[in-house]
C-alpha cells in the first residue's frame, strides 16, 4: 500500500499552494467555507483557554485575509467565555472580503489599528495577521508590531504559522513572531518543520476542522514528507534465518593517511553496527599499521593507488563504498571515484570537496539507476551546486531536489533540518536529530550508516533517508555531551 494512503491526515505535509487548492476543492464539493472558519476560530480560542487560563487580555492581531477572519471568530468565542478581548487590524477592517468580512460582522466590537497595539502584562497575543501563504517581506507596520511584542515577552499563539514565516521554506520574510504555540488546520506545512520556522512555531497543534481526507489526498501533488520509518520500512532488508554475512553486504570505507585514520574508523564502526555483514577499511600503505592497532571486527585491506583499487574491484562482492572521511582533498579522491563509478558510493567530506572545481565530472560518472549518495553540509552544497545555492527564490527542499536531479544522486542536505532528496522529486525533512549531534565526526558516522544500508541492498534514496533517521536515534540514545565515538557505539539496525 502506498505510504501516503496510510498516513494520518495530520501527519501529511502540504505546501501552501496545495492547501489553497484543498480549500477551493472543499468549497466546490459543497462544504460551507464559513463553517470551516468557525471551527478554526473555535480551535484557536480553545488553545488559549487551555494553555493560558490566567490571561487578562487576549490581543487579537488580524490580517487582511482569511487568517484575520479566523482571528475574529476566535475573539468572539473568547469574549463569550469571559475573556477580555481587543482586536487590532492590519489595514482597514472594511476592506475584508468574503468569509473574513462575515467573521468581522459576527463580532461587532471596536477594532483598533495594528500600529496602536501596546503589549501589557497579562496579555496573550493571537497572531492572525498572515498565514502559511506569505511570499513577500512583511510590511513595516507588522515588523514594528513584531518588535514590540518580542520586547514585551508576552505569550503568542500563531494561527497557521507565525506571521513572517514562509510556509513553503520556513524562512523569515524580514521579521517574524516567535510563537509559544502554533495552531494549524488539517495538515502541517513544510515551514512548520524547516528551520528557522520550526523553532519559531513553538509547540505545534494540528486541528481537524472537517475537510475530508479524500479531498486533501487528491490535492497533494508534491512528494514532500517528514522523514520516518513509514516512508522506507518496506525497503529495508529482511532478517530471515537464511541470512549470512555476504547477504548482509560488504561495506568498504577508505582511510586517509596515517595521521588521519580516525574518521574512517568511525564510519566503519557505524556501518558494522548498522547491519553490514562485513566491513573493510581500505588504507594506504602508511596507514595500515595505525588502523590495524585499533581494529578487531573490522577488516583491513591495503590500497595505495588507483591501480590497486581497480585490481581489487574484480571481486564482485565489493558492493558499496564510503569515500571522504579523513581521506584528503585532491586528485587521488577523484581517481578513486572514477574507479567506483559502477558501484554504490557514499561521498562525504573530503570526497565532496575534491570535486568543488569540477562537479560535472562527478555527476557524469553516475548515470542510470541512482547509486550515489552525497552528504553535503551548507558550505559543501554551495561548492558543488553554486548556482542552486545562490538562488534566493528557492527554499531548502527546492534546492535539495534540484541538486538531486542534476547529480542523479540522493542528496542529504545536512543541518538542523536535514533534507533528503531523490532525483525523482521525493524529499523528506528530518526532525528527530537532537541539537547535540552537531559535533566533530558526526557526519562520518552518518556516512557509515548510509553505506551499510546500501550494502544490504537498500536503494540509494531510502538508504539515505533511513540512515539520517537512524543517526538521529543514535544521537538521542547517546545523550548530551556525546562524541562521535559515543555516537558510533549507539547505532542500532532498524
TrEMBL record:
> Known EC number(s)?
4.2.1.136, 5.1.99.6
Q: Cite the binding residues for (6S)-NADPHX.
A: 66-70, 131-137, 160, 263, 326, 377, 444
Which UniProt keywords are listed? ATP-binding, Isomerase, Kinase, Lyase, Metal-binding, Multifunctional enzyme, NAD, NADP, Nucleotide-binding, Potassium, Transferase
Domain of life, source organism: Bacteria
Which of this chain's residues are annotated to bind AMP?
414-418, 443
Q: List the InterPro entries.
A: Carbohydrate_kinase_pred_CS, CARKD, Nnr, Ribokinase-like, YjeF_N_dom, YjeF_N_dom_sf
As its record notes, the protein acts as a catalyst of:
(6R)-NADHX = (6S)-NADHX; (6S)-NADPHX + ADP = AMP + phosphate + NADPH + H(+); (6S)-NADHX + ADP = AMP + phosphate + NADH + H(+); (6R)-NADPHX = (6S)-NADPHX
Q: Could you say which residues form the signal peptide? A: none
As one GO molecular function, the record gives: NAD(P)HX epimerase activity
What cofactor is needed? Answer: Mg(2+); K(+)
One protein family per Pfam: Carb_kinase
**Residue stretches making up the YjeF C-terminal domain:** 228-494
Which CDD domains has this protein been placed in? YXKO-related
The UniProt entry's GO biological process terms, in alphabetical order, are: metabolite repair; nicotinamide nucleotide metabolic process
Q: Indicate the quaternary assembly.
A: Homotetramer.
Q: Which family does it belong to?
A: In the C-terminal section; belongs to the NnrD/CARKD family. In the N-terminal section; belongs to the NnrE/AIBP family.
Q: What does this protein do?
A: Bifunctional enzyme that catalyzes the epimerization of the S- and R-forms of NAD(P)HX and the dehydration of the S-form of NAD(P)HX at the expense of ADP, which is converted to AMP. This allows the repair of both epimers of NAD(P)HX, a damaged form of NAD(P)H that is a result of enzymatic or heat-dependent hydration.
Q: Which PANTHER family match?
A: ATP-DEPENDENT (S)-NAD(P)H-HYDRATE DEHYDRATASE, ATP-DEPENDENT (S)-NAD(P)H-HYDRATE DEHYDRATASE FAMILY MEMBER
NCBIfam families, per the entry: yjeF_cterm, yjeF_nterm
* Name by which UniProt lists this protein: Bifunctional NAD(P)H-hydrate repair enzyme
Provenance organism:
Rhizobium grahamii CCGE 502
Amino acid at each position: 500500500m502506498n505510504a501516503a494512503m496510510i498516513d494520518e491526515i495530520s501527519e501529511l505535509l502540504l505546501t501552501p499552494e496545495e492547501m489553497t487548492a484543498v480549500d477551493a476543492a472543499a468549497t466546490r464539493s459543497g462544504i460551507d467555507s464559513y463553517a470551516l472558519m468557525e471551527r478554526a476560530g473555535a480551535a484557536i480560542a480553545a488553545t488559549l483557554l487551555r494553555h493560558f487560563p490566567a490571561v487578562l487580555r487576549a490581543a487579537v492581531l488580524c490580517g487582511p485575509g482569511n487568517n484575520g477572519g479566523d482571528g475574529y471568530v476566535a475573539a468572539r468565542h473568547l469574549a463569550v467565555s469571559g475573556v477580555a478581548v481587543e482586536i487590532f487590524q492590519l489595514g482597514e477592517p472594511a476592506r475584508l472580503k468574503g468569509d473574513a468580512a462575515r467573521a468581522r460582522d459576527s463580532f461587532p466590537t471596536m477594532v483598533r489599528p495594528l500600529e496602536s497595539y501596546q503589549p501589557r502584562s497579562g496579555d496573550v497575543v493571537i497572531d492572525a495577521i498572515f498565514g502559511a501563504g506569505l511570499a513577500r517581506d512583511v510590511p513595516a507596520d507588522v515588523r514594528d508590531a513584531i518588535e514590540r511584542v518580542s520586547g514585551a515577552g508576552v505569550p503568542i499563539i500563531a494561527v497557521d504559522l507565525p506571521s513572517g514565516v514562509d510556509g513553503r521554506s520556513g524562512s523569515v520574510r524580514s521579521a517574524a513572531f516567535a510563537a509559544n504555540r502554533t495552531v494549524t488546520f488539517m495538515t502541517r506545512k513544510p515551514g512548520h518543520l524547516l528551520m528557522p520556522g520550526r523553532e519559531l512555531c513553538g509547540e505545534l497543534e494540528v486541528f481537524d476542522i472537517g475537510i475530508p481526507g479524500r479531498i486533501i489526498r487528491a490535492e497533494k501533488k508534491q512528494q514532500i514528507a517528514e522523514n520516518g520509518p513509514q516512508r522506507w520500512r518496506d525497503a529495508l532488508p529482511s532478517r530471515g534465518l537464511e541470512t549470512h554475512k555476504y547477504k548482509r553486504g560488504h561495506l568498504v570505507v577508505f582511510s586517509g593517511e596515517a595521521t588521519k585514520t580516525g574518521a574512517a574508523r568511525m564510519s566503519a564502526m557505524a556501518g558494522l553496527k548498522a547491519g553490514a555483514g562485513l566491513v573493510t577499511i581500505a588504507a594506504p600503505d602508511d596507514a595500515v599499521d595505525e588502523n590495524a592497532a585499533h581494529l578487531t571486527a573490522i577488516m583491513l585491506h591495503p590500497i595505495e593507488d588507483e591501480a590497486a583499487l581497480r585490481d581489487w574491484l574484480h571481486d564482485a562482492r565489493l558492493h558499496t563504498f564510503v569515500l571522504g572521511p579523513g581521506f584528503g582533498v585532491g586528485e587521488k579522491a577523484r581517481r578513486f571515484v572514477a574507479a567506483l563509478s559502477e558501484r554504490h558510493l557514499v561521498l562525504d567530506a573530503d570526497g565532496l570537496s575534491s570535486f568543488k572545481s569540477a562537479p560535472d565530472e562527478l555527476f557524469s560518472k553516475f548515470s542510470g539507476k541512482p547509486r550515489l549518495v552525497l552528504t553535503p553540509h551548507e558550505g559543501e552544497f554551495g561548492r558543488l551546486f553554486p548556482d542552486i545555492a545562490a538562488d534566493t527564490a528557492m527554499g531548502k527542499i527546492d534546492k535539495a531536489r534540484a541538486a538531486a536531479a542534476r547529480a542523479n544522486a540522493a542528496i542529504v542536505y545536512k543541518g538542523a533540518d536535514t533534507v533528503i532528496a531523490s532525483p525523482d522529486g521525493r524529499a523528506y525533512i528530518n526532525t528527530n536529530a537532537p541539537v547535540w549531534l552537531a559535533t566533530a565526526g558526526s557526519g562520518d558516522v552518518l556516512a557509515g550508516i548510509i553505506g551499510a544500508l546500501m550494502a544490504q541492498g537498500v536503494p540509494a534514496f531510502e538508504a539515505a533517508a533511513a540512515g539520517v533517521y537512524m543517526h538521529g536515534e543514535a544521537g538521542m540514545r547517546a545523550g548530551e555531551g556525546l562524541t562521535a565515538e559515543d555516537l558510533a557505539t549507539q547505532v542500532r539496525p532498524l
